[in-house]
Amino acid sequence: MQTILITGGTGLIGKALTSALLAAGHKVIILTRNPDRYQESGKLSYAAWDPAAGTIDEAAIRKGSAVIHLAGAGVADKRWSVKRKMEILNSRVKGGELLCKALTTIPNEISVVVAASAIGWYGPDPVIPNPKPFEETAPAYDDFLGSTCQIWERSMDPITAMGKRLVVLRTGIVLAMEGGALAEFVKPLRFGFATILSSGKQMISWIHLQDLVRLYLNAMESGSWQGIYNAVGPIPVNNKNLVLTLAKLVRGSSFLPIHVPGILLKMVLGEMSIEVLKSTTVSSSKIRTAGFQFAFPTIESALNSLIKST
Ligand SMILES: NC(=O)c1ccc[n+]([C@@H]2O[C@H](COP(=O)([O-])OP(=O)(O)OC[C@H]3O[C@@H](n4cnc5c(N)ncnc54)[C@H](OP(=O)(O)O)[C@@H]3O)[C@@H](O)[C@H]2O)c1
Questions:
Q1: Domain CATH for 121
Q2: Which residue, among 296, 132, 110, has the nearest Cα to 206 in the 3D structure?
Q3: Chain segment 230-274, per-residue pLDDT in tens
Q4: Is residue 272 part of a domain?
């Protein structure tokens, strides 16, 4: 049994990961800005940290054997005002810096840190269809998401210099019914509309939440894993295929496909529309070569399992 610290463990990925770690017999301490909101139970406890204030519960650091670092302001939660962009960036960078400072100054037995990053690192596919998938060696794209991911990942560099193992998972679009992108696609289906965004040709590099949870466990437990890995499924899908596959599973044949024009999305979402309009095809070949096997390799298997689970 190990004691795993999870920053941002109260979020979509963190909750699923916590359940899996507890089921595997580990202790979990969630580092949150609001520990008073949550109730300890069994092997699960909460400890305070606040990246903006630069404070962290020292006792939690002393108890931990591994850290999973997920915290950060939601990229798609609000329109990207200048203030929101600063919050998205600062929450990640200050979180990384605080964690590194804590691991340097507080005596601890932590040997491995697994940190989230995102496929926002990569730019748009240079050609559509059939682009060459982005490998981990591709440079960061020169836009807000690319720069944010670059600075975010760099904030974790000191971990390696401390002699601890660092694994960074550049995560694709996480498919889960509890939240994130899929929940947004399901909403209009309640009224019978399958909303295809723009041409629907933009590629989505996705991963099932349960595969991502297994990937985090794998990265934490396998001593040979080190460095950057793309956390995406083996078969990216375009927006139209994803939406229509989902619609058929949820409503059979009783739905109406509609295209939401890209210009409208740009007006409503502003710069954040890039999140839904950009085509990004990302390679999973490094994690597969490292031995990871997907429980949900196809979009049909992933959506089927998610819909059955509700
Ligand atoms: N879900 C996806 O599709 C996806 C895709 C690519 C990458 N990722 C990355 O994976 C990580 C986890 O994703 P998720 O979907 O689980 O995120 P989430 O549900 O939004 O949860 C993130 C957690 O971060 C903490 N947080 C929020 N705002 C913060 C701020 N301003 N300062 C410090 N902490 C803050 C919150 O914990 P407390 O309120 O308890 O402190 C929150 O529960 C994120 O870094 C995200 O960017 C996710």
A1: 3.40.50.720
A2: 296
A3: 999 999 999 999 999 999 999 999 999 999 999 999 998 998 898
A4: no
- Judge whether 194 lies within some domain: no
Which residue's CA is the closest to the ligand 1 atom numbered 37?
8
The total of structural domains in the chain comes to: 1
Q: b/e for 28-61, b at 16 or more Cβ within 10 A?
A: bbbbbbebeeeeeeebbbbbebebeeeebbeebb
Are 2 and 43 in contact, with CB atoms under 8 Å apart?
no
Query: Can you give the pLDDT at residue 254?
Result: 94
Q: Does a structural domain hold residue 250?
A: no
The two tokens of residue 91 are 């929450």
Ramachandran angles phi, psi of 7, nearest 5°: -80, 140
C-alpha 107: how far from chain center: 29
Residue 51 counted as domain residue: yes
CA distance 242 to 60: 41
Q: Could you list the residue range(s) of the whole structural domain that residue 86 is in? A: 3-174+206-234+281-295
- Ligand 1 pocket check: which of 44, 57, 70, 212 to mutate, most ligand atoms within 8 Å of Cβ? 70
6 ligand 1 Cβ < 6 A:
no
**What percent of the chain is modeled with pLDDT above 90?**
92
* Pocket lining: 13 vs ligand 1, CB cutoff 6 Å: yes
